[in-house]
Amino acid sequence: MSGDRVVAPVGFRSRNLGDPRRHVDVVLAAAVGAVLLFGLILVYSATRRLDGGNGYVVRQMMFAVVGIGAASAAALVDYRKVADWWQALYAVSIVMLIGVLTPLGTVVNGTSGWYRAGSIALQPAEFAKLTTILAIAAYLGSVDEVDLRRLAGALGLLGVPVLLTLLQPDLGSALVFIVLGLGMLVVAGVRMKHLGVLVTLGIVAILMILNSGALDDYQTERLTSFISPDEQSYNVDQSQKAIGSGGLTGYGLANGPQTRGGYVPEQQTDFIFTVVGEEFGFLGSSLLVALLGIIIWRCWRAAQLAADQIGTLLCIGVTCMFLFHIFENIGMTLGIMPVTGIPLPFVSYGGSSLLVSFVAVGLVQSVHMHRFS
Questions:
Q1: What DSSP character marks residue 20?
Q2: What is the pLDDT of residues 313-337, one digit of tens each?
Q3: What pLDDT score was predicted for residue 223?
Q4: How far apart are CA 351 and CA 61, in angstroms?
Q5: Which of 28, 314, 358, 369 could form a disulfide with 298 if both were Cys (CB 3.0 to 4.6 A apart)?
Q6: CA distance 183 to 168
Q7: Domain ranges of the chain
């Protein structure tokens, strides 16, 4: 009858349902694209006064193109096949972290955490964040219960990159590892009493590091300035002035006086949020935060819809990584978080962070796309 609904055969429906290309998270892809565009505009404004300023935007666009390609490849490959290689990928990232502590590494802003070849710099800690997420997801995702032996193994996988980044010293990256690790352990089902002990030990360790003399005085001051507003660093003081002066709608693109005058240090990287605050005001800042929030939401949603525990833990790790980066980066520009060298995902200038962010989103897309296969 003409009014009857046409129902496709079961086999036909199953084949269509199992095709990963039918399940791309368009909302996540669109949000990432919008934040990337926002970031390119902000990098342009922050660097236009610098020598070779146009080069920053060009290089960022080049990294974006490579990143989009890498994300697409990661999305099309079944994440479970990638997880099968976690030992090799993790081992390579650890070797790279060790290498920067040798004469092969380059010191930038007091941190020996980079490899440099000409104008291209590579920060292995960024790549290690992703391989550590993959390693813990594969290690814990294959068991029904996380006993003490498994917990110890996961802590070992987490502890090695934490230790190596602290030796650089890079407390910001070490905190990222700790946060994403704790998030994954919670979702994996680790007992709360064990987590309580771990959190306590972590706080004690951070306090010991701050008082050990391992960090230079200026690094300690930057990390603790948010506790004593009267003693906040020059960076935070100029950052707050820039954001506060933007008002509701800002001065307009490339018209911010703090940005044009170059008063905010590291404005194209760590303090790039000051540009949107000054030039686009509260409304522009809110739009950027909302777009970043959509990325977090879609990563969390992919974790909920994942076909297995490995996919869930992988998405949770990426979610925690992005969430801490966003909260810490924006928080330090507002003076409510310690000043660390943590970039704003898809916004801050920097090839390593941008590439890793794209691959991370690609893996989340893979979990979402392959949930029926």
A1: G
A2: 999 999 999 999 999 999 989 888 8
A3: 57
A4: 10
A5: 28
A6: 24
A7: 36-369
